[in-house]
Amino acid sequence: MPLTPEAEYVLRTVEERGIRFIRLWFTDVLGFLKAFTITSQELEGAFAEGMGFDGSSIDGFSRIEESDMVAVPDPSTFQLIPWKTEAQVARMFCDVLNTDGTPFEGDPRYVLKRQLARAAELGYTFYVGPELEYFYFRSPDDPRFLDQSGYFDETPLDVATDWRKRTVTYLESMGIPVEYVHHEVAPSQHEIDLRYTDALTMADNVMTYRLTVKEVAQEFGIYATFMPKPVMGVNGSGMHTHQSLFRGDRNAFFDPDDEYHLSKVAKHYIAGILRYAPEITLVTNQWVNSYKRLVPGYEAPVYVCWARVNRGGSSTARRTRRATRTSRSP
Asked: pLDDT tens for residues 122-167?
């Protein structure tokens, strides 16, 4: 099979920059990032035929009698890994295939691509902009707060500013633009918001973001967690996601003549989220700890409702520019 121009570009870049190792990333059905590393000599073969692995050892992938699966790197996701390593290392996200070359239906990336294709058939492009919250602790076994600051507080430089700054620097070096960086409501809780983009790119960016936050924390000798409710009595962490559908360059959710500037498409979209909130929750809140977060009084989405302006626990609230805001726990 001839290589695509993107794959040829990656091969040239790897050779010109002396990149020795390439990490191939994919996600299991629980949302955990999985990876294995190949050498630069194996890269052309990986593009042409993929790299085989034991799918039965990945939660939710395959049974022992049908264990072989294939990871095919997506050259459009090629980026150098910026954190400290002994040699130049790059990464690419992969599409997971069955051994007969068909897409594996349990691959979360394929599930998203399939739904985006359905939206494209209707003429829509789906954009998202997430706000990811997380905590810094001393270690996994020592969940003490590292500060007593609150929402938008300017923490001392030796507490968290440098940690967030390095995280943003790493993200931007990998082509992931950042919109906001700030302290969140709970002590030792922080948020970095990624600039909106198409849903598939953002899904890859979110997985990269989570790993980057943890890598930076490790560099500084601390621990970062995206656990939904690590400490009782304070706000938990969610991932608020701004969503919008576009037809070409036009925001399909916006109607200048509507009282609330919401188009019929936007209202039907919101109605769909409300109608299928229980089913959505099965996927977005799959941990027992997620439901420890979903209690009144902590800005968590405890009601299935929508509102123009509501941060008191609504699951859907409208914003004029990006139209719909939903909340989920990592």
From this structure: 999 999 999 999 999 999 999 899 988 888 887 776 578 899 999 9
Residue 251, domain member (yes or no): yes
* β-pairing verdict for 21-27 and 33-39: antiparallel
CATH number at residue 152: 3.30.590.10
From the number of C-beta atoms within 10 Å of its C-beta (0-12, 13-18, 19+), residue 112 rates as middle
Question: Last residue of a domain, which of 56, 74, 106?
Answer: 106
- Residues 220-241: tens digit of each pLDDT: 999 999 999 999 999 999 999 9
Tokens of 24: 């191939």
Residue at which a domain ends, from 49, 78, 106? 106
Q: By the 8 A CB rule, do 285 and 298 touch? A: no
Q: Report how many domains make up the chain.
A: 2
Tell me whether residue 252 is in a domain.
yes
N residues, the chain: 330
Q: Is 117 inside a domain boundary?
A: no
Strands (E), the chain: 21-27, 33-39, 51-54, 68-73, 79-80, 89-97, 125-139, 142-145, 178-183, 189-194, 197-198, 223-225, 239-247, 250-251, 303-307, 314-319, 323-326
Tokens of 227: 């656990």
Cα distance between residue 228 and residue 287, in whole Å = 9
